[in-house]
Description:
Blueprint: H1 3-23, H2 26-34, E1 38-41, E2 46-49, H3 52-60, E3 64-65, H4 82-87, H5 94-104, H6 110-114, H7 117-129, E4 136-138, H8 139-144, H9 147-156, H10 163-175, H11 187-208, H12 215-222, H13 231-262, H14 266-271, H15 277-288, E5 294-298, E6 302-304, E7 307-309, E8 314-317, H16 319-328, H17 351-368, E9 369-374, E10 379-380, E11 389-391, E12 393-398
Parallel strand pairs: 2-8
Antiparallel strand pairs: 1-2, 3-5, 4-12, 5-8, 6-7, 9-12, 10-11
Amino acid sequence: MTPATEHTAQARKRAAVAGHLLRRPAVLYEQLRRQGSLVWSGSGGCWLVVGHEAARMVLRDERFRMPGADQNSEWGDGAGHGEFVRSLLLSAEGADHDRMRRTLGPAFSPRAVRARRAAVETTIGRLLADIGPDGRFDGVTAISGRLPVSVVGELVGVPEPERADVSELCRTISQGGGLASGRAGDDAVRDAIAALDDLTVLVRRWLADPVPDSVLAAIRAAAGTPQALSEVEAVANVFSLYLAGHDTSRNMISGLLLRLATVPELLDDLHEGRRAAEAEVERVLLTESPLTFTARLAMTDVEVAGQLIRRGDRLRVMLGAANHELVTTGQSAGPLAGVAFGEGRHVCLGAHVARLEGIALLTVVARRCAAVRLVGDPRWTAHFLHRGLETLPLEATWR
Ligand code: HEM
């Protein structure tokens, strides 16, 4: 074998292993679990927090924080856009984090979210109505990719015609590397900064006349009070909600559609009330963990699961692996999603929204469809952090 063909063969083998892990991450989770609650990853240069209790401890403990942006970048502290990154809910800590959650929180309460159920069900009905008479559709492009854009847009208070553009602006900001490694001069960073300027103009306009009962209306109502958000905080958190509420929900919804297609009796059981949509959603959150991990940085020396973590060490909290421990040890008897939504002060703000999307989906599909079946191979996205499907070829039979 020449070095070139050997290189190609190795690349193919790596792609095959990665493909297998994306389909069945449980294999990796099991391997990690055998090594303990905390595993050092030489290749990642970080600790992998694998055990469920250890993950909960790290997420709750204030001595661990979300790593900030690269200090030498446009997005680092003191740089032009450092304040934007510091204002994201996930980066903020202490009084600023509490203040922003107090202002944004009421729009995400169980009561406020329940009030949106009829509207979400109507949206799902419309998405199903768009499917052609032969009942064939791709679950990702027809349903799971579209539903979160509509739900998050409505919740934030983004006018319908602008929702797709805002998704694109937020994607450009996130791809600009701003949150990890953006460097001035890089095209992606320049595009991200231009997109951020555009988003700022839009947020300013929406805030002047906000949609009632939306997140933007809550931000506007807090103006002039001790809970007020600055303009940068408002823009950063519109971005946060778009980023956090799209790919995660999309992947959970794809997981639910796949389950409907692979457990034939599920649809009738839901329709006849033998199974509850709520419990099915919790099960998919626990077993699929749509966000497989999150990051933390140790602010001081801390002991976790008998291991000393040094100040400055990086950690990857493996949410999927921690949930896998619950599944394999049978601790998941309760209807809870483990750490799929995180835990502690940064626990997912949109957890009830995501649950509503899943419950409404199962309810409407069970009402409208007698069967949903696979008509091709589902393909998983080549992305380990956001575990989900890229294509899901399905066929529905209408009731
Ligand atoms: C199945 C869907 C979802 C999953 C699995 C999920 C998962 C998570 C997790 C694990 C965290 C904590 C991350 C950490 O501590 O590092 C988080 C935080 C967050 N999520 Fe979600 N999420 C979902 C849907 C949503 C939705 C629909 C929204 C909003 C519309 C949302 C908004 C947020 C926000 C704003 C935070 C940051 C909270 C804070 O730092 O205080 N998420 N999410």
